Inverse folding.
């Protein structure tokens, strides 16, 4: 009997479900109807126990307040009666259905009103309400008794919904595990009883599989992210330094790492597209004059002193411009080397520009998004700075050190903003300091000018000494070594915040270096012009030498003469290679000076201080020499100017980037070691500005400044006639024209010619200017709007604060006992007990379904996860967006009749 | 004895690796109903596909093999002392390990039952909701258990974080600043509400308040 009943009920349920799937799209409706499937057989047991009772009379005595014992009792009674009533009705219905069972076709047909109205009209109505209890027309047409039972049904449904929600949000509750378990079991039993299996039939497996895949995917992504962070080079080293020296020192190393990455890309570009093709496919060394060491230099070409100056064999190698042949295509690939050379030279600058600007843009984006959090600096540091993932004592030490440092940084910032001082004195001192520094800069500029003038005189003389030859470099290095500390000493007068002071310092040293660089460039330019003026003469000499060689008398005319040995051909000075060599020398000497400075100035000093302290008459560590601090500004600027050299030189010396990559790699390790071994943290530790856009800005400026001379030489100087890929052409960029004419179809050439028309270019530039102006104004207005919004939020927060402080006392008292639940939870608990109690008799029927329930419920209740949380505390107003939604759920009894419409869909 | 892990979980559950109480409950109940769960604990957690709750159970069991039985059928009342909990590699370097153990233990002494242990790692897991984490973070930072984070609690926190390397003035300045920033109702201490208000805005709270096991 019971089995039959059950199968009946299940069929009924499936019929309903089918109808719901096909017919009504409302999810709430469907869920509301579903419980009917299980209710019939189970409620029968309940009916047998409680007997039939009229459900109406409970309504009379006005419902007491929620939570009061009387109300609870009433609720329980009402609940029981509701069950009884429903059980009775369903029992009757099942009887009639069983009678009909033989000829039954489908439940849907049975449900058709025409058939059912004849047999059991009243039951039919109940049944319909059971499913469509929410439709107002039906509710109004039903009699009083049935509308009440409908309410009860709605209540049960509410409870089921609540339970399901409880199951879904169980994770969010700060309960101990044991309580969670009991609660969960109760809730699950309740839901099981009223709703039966929540499973989705056949889709369950697929769903489970999909969930599994989603989990795997999430895990994979997490692992991949971990892997990516592990792949970042020197991350641990930099973290280590950061924890000891603060973020400003670390920012230098991050910058160095970034620079290394950029240079690697440039290196790949140049090596892959220029040097390797030339070495593999070009004519070999010694075959043509430009690839051969001249006869006069051959003896000393392998001497170290010559090689060290990048003369001899190195000068006639693929590292320099002059080695490349002007053959249009090389090798069986017919690789157009001159074209590739030119394009690589352009794309080095293009890539650098793009990467610098992109990183600047991303930095500004990052900084704007962080702006909002400035209100909680200390709180965030206090509560979220410890990384609970740390499980290594060394890391923990570092983390502690870095937290301490960051606290100190913030304290310095805070004190700086609060400081009140004699403004006139400060102003006077700042003006004085700037005056002194300008004097220094002028002096150094004059010194360089003087030295360069002298060196031009020396260059005309013969037999100059080593000092006189290298005077310019020496003076420049000395200036670079002594001026920054001088500036720093003067800057102490100004009494800026360290971060601002660092910027000033950077700017000043930048001016100094820029002066040096441009003096150097001007001297170089003079040299180039000198060589260019000699070129015509040499060209004639070469021509005549060859002419005489081939036409000289005294040779058998019948046999063609062997060509002149390439080493004997007279040739020009090849100014491009000379420029490349200058940059190469400068880079190497710069590197050496840096390393020696570190070794002498930092490491030896540290050793001296450390070990001589035992036998010295004053405290060396605390007193005069002390340990060196890491010189951020000098190092950053050294790096930036070095990069400028690379950019300028890489066109004339393709191998320069390779040397620079080596230099950056070694200096990464060397400086990391030096910093950790021989430097002390700054006395006033300060945080690096939020983005290192200042560095990037300087880099961009240097990039632009180094682009200028290269562009000038490419566009307006004629290339050497006998060396390099562009020899024989009037200008270097002619190679593009040549390629377009010879290798592209004619219409493309026409298109290019049309595009190069000034009539088109000038409007395009104008358009760009307009676009820049427009975008600039748009971004300005946006940022203004942003600021206003922020202000509004701030004001709202203030209002909220004052509002809270007005009524904050009672809620504060509430949260004192954290284990106690708010009234909301108490109500739910009550519901649970009432829901489970009357059904203990029918538990046996649901035992088999309980087995699959947890998984099923997990799948079914998954979408409700982000629903209201049940932390037992009052929430700040407006913080929880769903607090309004969960409100009607908390008082299911009071609003039972009107709720059907407002109930949130599950 | 069949291998635990995937096999012992029911089909619908295997996919749910989310430390949620459902799984925990299932596993715990499973462990309790396991007649004789004598599987060498060292081999099992290494198996791929062994669910987290299982791994947790074996970690727990591993902490004190002489105390914790392998079978939880009879619901033994076992507590692992704080000394063992605090010496777990995941916790031993954490300056707040004592607080964590106290918050999650039943009577605030740091000795943990299996339920407490599961509780702790479920809250500290990646999947735990933000609100729950914030609630427990509040309890952890509330050193004197009075339901508020007062100045003394803040001082304790700073001292633990910096291992006492800040001077007394600096500590008090920091505490003052924190109160200044976060105290919404100006009562000189942080209520849970204030704390949540701050912590829910923190960009890296979720990623740092997390123990991987």
């Amino acid at each position: 009997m019971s089995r039959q009943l059950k199968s009946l009920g299940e069929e009924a349920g499936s019929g309903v479900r089918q109808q719901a799937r096909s017919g009504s799209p409302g999810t709430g409706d469907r869920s509301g109807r579903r419980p009917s499937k299980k209710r019939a057989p189970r409620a029968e047991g309940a009916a047998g126990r409680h007997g039939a009772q009229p459900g109406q009379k409970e309504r009379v005595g006005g419902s007491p307040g929620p939570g009061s014992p009387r109300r609870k009792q009433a609720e329980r009674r009402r609940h029981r009666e509701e069950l009884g009533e429903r059980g009775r009705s369903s029992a009757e219905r099942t009887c009639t259905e069983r009678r009909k069972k033989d000829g039954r076709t489908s439940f849907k047909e049975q449900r058709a009103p025409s058939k059912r109205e004849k047999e059991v009209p009243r039951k039919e109505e109940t049944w319909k309400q059971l499913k469509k209890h929410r439709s107002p027309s039906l509710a109004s047409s039903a009699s009083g008794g049935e509308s009440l039972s409908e309410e009860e049904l709605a209540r049960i449904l509410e409870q089921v919904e609540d339970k399901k929600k409880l199951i879904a949000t169980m994770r969010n509750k700060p309960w101990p595990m044991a309580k969670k378990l009991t609660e969960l079991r109760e809730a699950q039993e309740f839901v099981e009883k009223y709703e039966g299996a929540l499973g989705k039939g056949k889709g369950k497996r697929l769903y489970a599989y999909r969930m599994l895949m989603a989990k795997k995917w999430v895990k994979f992504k997490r692992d991949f992210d971990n892997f990516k962070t592990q792949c970042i080079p020197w991350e641990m080293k930099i973290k280590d330094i950061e924890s000891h020296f603060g973020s400003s020192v670390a920012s230098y190393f991050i910058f160095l790492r970034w620079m290394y990455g950029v240079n690697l890309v440039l290196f790949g570009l140049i090596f892959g597209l220029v040097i390797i093709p030339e070495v593999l496919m070009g004519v070999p060394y010694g075959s043509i004059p430009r690839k051969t060491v001249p006869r006069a230099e051959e003896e000393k070409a392998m001497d170290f002193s010559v090689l060290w100056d990048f003369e001899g064999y190195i000068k006639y190698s693929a590292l320099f411009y002059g080695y490349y042949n002007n053959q249009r295509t090389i090798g069986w690939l017919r690789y157009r080397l001159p074209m590739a050379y030119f394009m690589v030279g352009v794309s080095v600058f293009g890539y650098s520009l793009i990467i610098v600007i992109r990183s600047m843009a991303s930095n500004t984006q990052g900084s704007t998004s962080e702006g909002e959090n400035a209100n909680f600096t200390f709180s965030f540091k206090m509560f979220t700075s410890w990384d609970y993932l740390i499980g290594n004592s060394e890391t923990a030490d570092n983390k502690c050190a870095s937290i301490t440092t960051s606290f100190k940084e913030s304290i310095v910032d805070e004190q700086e903003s609060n400081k009140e001082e004699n403004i006139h004195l400060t102003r006077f001192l700042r003006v004085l300091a700037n005056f002194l520094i300008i004097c220094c800069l002028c002096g150094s500029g004059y010194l360089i000018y003087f030295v360069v003038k002298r060196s031009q005189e020396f260059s005309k003389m013969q037999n100059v000494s080593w000092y006189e030859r290298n005077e310019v470099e020496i003076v420049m290095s000395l200036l670079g070594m002594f001026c920054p500390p001088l500036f720093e000493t003067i800057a102490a007068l100004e009494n800026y915040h360290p971060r601002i002071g660092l910027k000033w310092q950077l700017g000043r040293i930048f001016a100094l270096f820029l002066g040096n660089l441009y003096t150097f460039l001007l001297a170089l330019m003079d040299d180039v012009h000198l060589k260019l003026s000699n070129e015509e003469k040499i060209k004639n000499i070469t021509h005549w030498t060859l002419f005489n060689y081939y036409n000289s008398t005294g040779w058998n005319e019948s046999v063609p003469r062997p060509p002149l040995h390439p080493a004997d051909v007279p040739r020009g000075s090849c100014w491009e290679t000379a420029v490349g060599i200058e940059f190469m020398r400068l880079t190497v000497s710069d590197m050496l000076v840096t390393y020696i400075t570190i070794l002498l100035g930092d490491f030896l000093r540290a050793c001296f201080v450390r070990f001589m302290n035992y036998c010295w008459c004053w405290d060396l560590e605390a007193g005069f020499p002390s340990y060196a601090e890491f010189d951020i500004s000098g190092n950053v600027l050294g790096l930036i100017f070095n990069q400028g050299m690379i950019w300028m030189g890489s066109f004339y010396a393709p191998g320069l980037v390779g040397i620079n990559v080596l230099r950056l790699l070694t200096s990464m390790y060397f400086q990391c070691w030096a910093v950790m071994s021989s430097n002390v943290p700054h006395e006033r530790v300060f945080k690096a500005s939020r983005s290192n856009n200042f560095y990037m800005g300087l880099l961009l400026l240097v990039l632009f400044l180094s682009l200028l001379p290269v562009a000038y030489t490419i566009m307006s100087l004629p290339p050497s006639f006998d060396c390099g890929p562009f020899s024989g052409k009037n200008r270097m960029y002619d190679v593009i024209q040549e390629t377009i004419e010879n290798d592209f179809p004619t219409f493309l050439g026409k298109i290019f010619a049309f595009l190069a028309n000034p009539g088109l270019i000038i409007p395009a530039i104008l358009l760009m200017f307009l676009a820049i102006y427009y975008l600039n104004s748009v971004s300005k207005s946006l940022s203004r709007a942003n600021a206003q919004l922020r202000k509004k939020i701030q004001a709202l927060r203030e209002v909220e604060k004052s509002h809270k402080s007005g009524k904050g006392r009672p809620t504060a008292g509430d949260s004192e006992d954290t284990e106690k639940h708010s009234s909301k939870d108490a109500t739910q608990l009550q519901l649970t007990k009432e829901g489970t109690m009357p059904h203990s008799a029918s538990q046996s029927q649901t035992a088999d379904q309980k087995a699959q329930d947890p998984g099923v419920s997990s799948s079914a209740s998954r979408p409700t996860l982000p629903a209201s949380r049940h932390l037992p505390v009052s929430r700040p107003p407006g913080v929880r967006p769903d607090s309004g939604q969960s409100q009607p759920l908390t008082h299911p009894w009071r609003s039972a009749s009107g709720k059907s419409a407002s109930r949130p869909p599950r | 004895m069949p291998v635990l892990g995937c096999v012992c979980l029911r089909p619908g559950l295997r996919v749910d690796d989310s430390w949620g109480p459902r799984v925990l409950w299932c596993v715990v109940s499973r462990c309790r109903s396991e007649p004789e769960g004598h599987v060498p604990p060292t081999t099992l957690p290494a198996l791929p596909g062994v669910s987290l709750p299982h791994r947790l159970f074996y970690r727990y069991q591993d902490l004190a093999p002489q105390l914790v039985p392998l079978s939880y059928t009879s619901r033994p009342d076992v507590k692992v002392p704080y000394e063992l909990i605090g010496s777990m590699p995941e916790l031993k370097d954490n300056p707040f390990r004592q607080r964590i153990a106290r918050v999650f233990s039943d009577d605030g002494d740091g000795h943990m039952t299996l339920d407490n242990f599961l509780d702790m790692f479920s809250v500290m897991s990646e999947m735990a909701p933000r609100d729950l984490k914030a609630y427990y973070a509040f309890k952890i930072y509330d050193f004197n258990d009075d339901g508020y984070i007062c100045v003394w609690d803040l001082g304790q926190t700073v001292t633990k974080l910096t291992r006492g390397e800040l001077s007394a003035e600096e500590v008090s300045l920091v505490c003052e600043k924190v109160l200044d920033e976060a105290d919404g109702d100006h009562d000189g201490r942080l209520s849970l509400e204030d704390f949540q208000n701050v912590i829910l805005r923190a960009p890296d709270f979720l990623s740092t308040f997390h123990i991987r096991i």
Observations:
- Residues 130-208 of chain B form a domain with the Recoverin; domain 1 fold (CATH 1.10.238.10).
- Chain B touches chain A through 80 residues (CB under 8 Å).
- Residues 1-49 of chain B have pLDDT under 50 and may be disordered.
- DSSP finds eleven helices and no strands in chain B.
